[in-house]
Design brief:
Number of strands: 10
Number of helices: 10
Order of helices and strands: EHEEEEEHEEEEHHHHHHHH
Helix content: 40-55%
Distance between the termini: 63 Å
Strand order of the largest sheet: 1-5-6-10
Strand content: 15-25%
Structural class: alpha+beta
Shape: elongated
Largest sheet: 4 strands, mixed
Length: 285
């Protein structure tokens, strides 16, 4: 981690944007997450049309810095897709001496004053208003991933399914984050968000690969997530091993724990391959 003086140098050199927090008038319309002009002398001072949305982001990184008293500050740093770099450059040139703002969930997160034309496509998002930039970073990355999948699926022709899956996964994540809901896995299994997600996986078993990449595999499977994974997988493959039984705690080796999860996934993939072969054989009859 770097000290705060390093942050000031980075902002001056890399993004050419100096943050000077300023209050903007409240929004009266829904806006996509992204960068907007601030229009002077209007009741709703934020432009209706975006300069760039998060769907146009090509790269994103979360940096952290510490104050002298060890308090942490976070900053999101990124670049624009090459196809939109000239638009970003023209917009920043037009805004020299003025403010632009980054809007997320229809709230102004930061409103920096632009000092120069930015031709590199670089930007930074920093705030002193108490927003959780770590959570925001993850959510923006998810939105970027959805856009990348959308473009990929448009080429393949299966856009509806992937967007449907992303929506269901997001709904399940939010359901599981609700405070003080329950400590019992069976209660979560009755929720609409979980049932919708489980049904989708059951009807589209190829999406088990996306389940392996989801937030459910980011924590220890000995807890709630393990019960949910077992319920989803065993509904489709009754002979599948339990992920809770496959995972071994107390080994003191993170690599070993990851290896057991990889072994579990390989076993499930074999069951998926067996089912695919069986379905092909039945179709060929």
């Amino acid at each position: 981690m770097k000290k705060l003086n390093c942050l000031l140098i980075l902002i001056a050199i890399a993004s050419v944007i100096v943050l000077e927090p300023n209050s903007c008038n409240a929004q009266t319309i829904e806006r996509e997450n992204g960068w907007y002009y601030i229009m002077e002398g209007r009741k709703d001072s934020i432009s209706k049309e975006s300069i760039i949305t998060v769907k146009d982001f090509a790269f994103l990184r979360l940096d952290s810095f510490s104050y002298s008293d060890n308090r942490m500050m976070y900053m999101i740093v990124g670049t624009i897709n090459q196809s939109q770099v000239s638009r970003w450059a023209d917009a920043t040139e037009r805004s020299i001496g003025k403010r632009i703002c980054f809007v997320f969930d229809n709230k102004v997160i930061t409103d920096p004053k632009v000092n120069a034309r930015i031709e590199s496509g670089a930007f930074s998002i920093s705030t002193y208003k108490g927003y959780d930039l770590k959570t925001m970073f993850r959510q923006i990355r998810e939105e970027m991933d959805v856009e990348q999948e959308r473009i990929h699926c448009l080429e393949k022709g299966d856009l509806t399914d992937i967007l449907g899956y992303k929506k269901l996964e997001r709904a399940l994540f939010e359901e599981l984050q609700k405070p003080n809901f329950s400590s019992c896995a069976e209660d979560y299994m009755k929720s609409e968000a979980y049932l919708n997600y489980k049904t989708f996986i059951g009807k589209n078993p190829d999406y088990i690969e996306r389940l392996f990449q989801s937030f459910l595999f980011k924590s220890s499977p000995q807890g709630l997530y393990g019960y949910l994974i077992d319920d989803i997988i065993k509904e489709k493959y009754p002979d599948a091993p339990s992920i809770r039984g496959n995972f071994r705690e107390g080994t003191g080796s993170k690599d070993y724990d990851i290896l057991t999860l990889e072994d579990y996934q390989k076993t499930i993939r074999k069951l998926m391959d067996i089912e695919r072969s069986k379905n092909k054989s039945e179709l060929s009859r």
